[in-house]
């Protein structure tokens, strides 16, 4: 399992080479923990902190697409090769502004939802799952739990018969997604962007589809306001690529306004075709 160690967002070849690792490569160990999170059926947790490793291969089912850079050259090289995909100036400010504005009502709604989950089906309240974020880096996505406390299979398709009563309501109103505002605060997600997916799905992307990983994943995006789960993943990815290429403040505001309408009418909540070429097992 070979990785390049990074510091402050930049990969440091020279430091690694001085430690006796040729070409700046180091080995990062993974350990299996009983309380870990499932990644492609294996419970793996990296010993490296999030954001400190640039992944350059397949490990534990995670397909990562980062590459080595010399210290201080990450921003420049990324800008020159993918300048048209740089997030627009002010996007992080927009994320933090929105989180600040909705913090109080979200906390109240979240506490009510958590209490309802506890009363109906007990603990845990939160559902945690490893997803793939920008540049192929894994992170732990947070949601309010909407399914019963049963032994979860490897099947990624939610079976409606296992939804709790409160879970159906939470999903219908997308309230189960509210804990992901914590992911936004951590810098793992943005308010608007492609939805984060599972590692096995990322492995099936072709080189063009992998372009959706050039930006932070989001709570909502163009795909979510243009059909959501009613579309196949290849169709969703086309919307995501359109967003990556044309992202702007105006586009984000437009997506946010349409998201409110989508949630109110409950469009696209059902779906998840088992024959989807990317999502199927």
Please provide a written account of the structure.
This protein folds into 2 domains: 2-85, no CATH class; 91-265, no CATH class. It is built from 8 helices and 13 strands. The protein has helices at residues 13-18, 74-82, 91-121, 165-172, 180-186, 199-202, 233-246, 249-265; strands spanning 2-7, 10-11, 26-27, 30-32, 38-39, 42-46, 53-55, 58-59, 62-63, 126-132, 138-144, 190-192, 218-220. Strands 1, 2, 3 and 7 form a 4-stranded antiparallel beta sheet that branches. Strands 4-6-5 form a 3-stranded antiparallel beta sheet, with no helix packed on it. A two-stranded antiparallel sheet has the order 8-9. Helix 3 packs antiparallel against helix 4 (165-172). The longest helix is centred in the middle third of the chain and has 31 residues, at 91-121. It is globular and about 45 Å long. The model is unreliable at 1-84 (pLDDT under 50).
């Amino acid at each position: 399992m070979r990785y390049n160690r990074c510091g402050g967002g930049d990969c440091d070849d020279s430091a690694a080479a001085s430690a006796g690792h040729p070409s700046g490569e180091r080995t990062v160990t993974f350990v299996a923990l009983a309380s870990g999170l499932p990644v492609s059926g294996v419970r793996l947790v990296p010993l490296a902190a999030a954001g400190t490793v640039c992944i350059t291969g397949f490990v534990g089912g995670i397909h990562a697409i980062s590459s080595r850079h010399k210290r201080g050259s990450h921003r420049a090289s990324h800008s020159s090769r993918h300048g048209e995909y740089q997030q627009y100036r002010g996007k992080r400010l927009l994320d933090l502004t929105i989180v600040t504005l909705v913090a109080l009502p979200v906390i109240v709604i979240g506490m009510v939802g958590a209490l309802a989950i506890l009363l109906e089906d007990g603990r845990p309240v939160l559902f945690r799952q490893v997803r793939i974020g920008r540049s192929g880096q894994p992170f732990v996505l947070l949601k309010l739990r909407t399914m019963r406390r049963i032994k979860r299979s490897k099947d990624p398709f939610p079976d409606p018969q296992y939804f709790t009563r409160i879970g159906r309501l939470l999903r219908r109103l997308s309230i189960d997604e509210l804990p992901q505002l914590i992911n936004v605060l951590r810098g793992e997600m943005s308010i608007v962007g492609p939805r984060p997916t599972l590692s096995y799905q990322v492995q099936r992307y072709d080189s063009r589809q992998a372009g959706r990983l050039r930006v932070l994943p989001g709570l909502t995006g163009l795909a979510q306001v243009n059909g959501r789960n009613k579309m196949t993943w290849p169709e969703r990815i086309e919307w995501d690529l359109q967003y990556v290429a044309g992202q702007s403040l105006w586009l984000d505001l437009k997506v946010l306004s349409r998201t409110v309408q989508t949630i109110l009418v409950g469009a696209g909540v059902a779906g998840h075709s088992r024959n989807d070429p990317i999502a199927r097992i």
